[in-house]
Amino acid sequence: MKYVMATHNPNKLLELQRILEPLHIEVTTADLQEVEETGTTFAENAYLKAKAACEQTGLPAVADDSGLVVDALNGAPGVYSARYAGPDATDAQRMDKLLHELDGVPAEQRTARFVSAICVVYPDGERMDVEGVCEGSVAFAPRGHDGFGYDPIFLVGEKTYAELTPAEKDAVSHRGKALRELAARLEERHGN
Description:
This protein has five helices and seven strands, in the order E-H-E-H-E-H-E-E-E-E-H-H.
């Protein structure tokens, strides 16, 4: 079975392919039109992207919307995680903005979670939704060299996502949890 992933982020595609590989499900990308993320939740934005990708390609489409929710910032950056420091900001600029806003906030008040909502939309209109959450906190400075986005400042235990190997990250991450749930649901659907 072939699915298209609604993303321009090669890192998200690699995570999805790693976890779905045992199911022999082919996941590809396509030259898709950008979808405006007008939803107020991660799940709404994932659905908007999956629906548009399915309509554009005629294939079952998978989309993820995820972000960092920081308690001391009343849930920010939340659904605006990718656009937090402006639409063309780099990962480093987004992290700098977040760390600046948390300046003076002690470690015990830097609790946060990464949330990943994944939606699959099929050409017949059927829809499947899963969500994964990883609790952690925000570090005082970036650490590690792997990962992307906010990975260098998101702590799970003593390590940031960026200090974990891909396998370690997949085992604990919000997206890893959501993708394992998705894999189980797809396995039921396809009888693999």
